[in-house]
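Here comes my example:
=====
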Amino acid sequence: MKYGLMMAATAAALLAPGTAAAQYNPVFMADVIGQAVANSMNSGIPEKCLKLDWEPTAEQAKRFTAEAEPALRAYLALAAKDADLTPAYTNRKFDRMWAIDGTATKEFAAIRDPWAARVDRIELVGLRLGGMKVRGRGQWRAFAADGSLIGTYDGLFRRKTKGFEVSSLDLWSPGKEGDAKPLSGFCYTPGDHEQWVEDVAKAEAERAERRAKKAAERAAKAK
């Protein structure tokens, strides 16, 4: 599933630009980039952010690192009691989501976390703060008291005045973790950098095709 674009660490390596950006570095004409960005954006997200040229500062990364896990624990505390999960989430309803193994729901009254009451400890997999610095993503493995793996919590967090809060949450059963998107760099929404790269490449290919067609037409006329 492709994520739509929207306006607005545990280690430095986790907050470094994604490998896709490092591998994909062609020199494009300005009009090609402009066309691709226009096609890929719903609104004015800066191109530099989509290219992963914007990096969180050490202070911003530290804040997200310190506040993401408490936000998840606040959710777990409510979920373990089958309580209303709304207080653990950001109040932006359009952004709110809960899913297990790819099946999502926004009907919070119907959500019942099948794991929370059994979670004895959580273990951090990794964190990424987005280039806009207002949203970050984190993954944790959850274990039962006997040490068995219950599953993985994959959360997207939004910055609030008093800290980060859960924006959306994916639960992945053991063996299903591979279905999650890679914990790679993004601007505002996970996957937006990859979508931008895809759109720019498509625009360049279309431009090259038009040039080849015109060249063929000129060659035909010259005969």
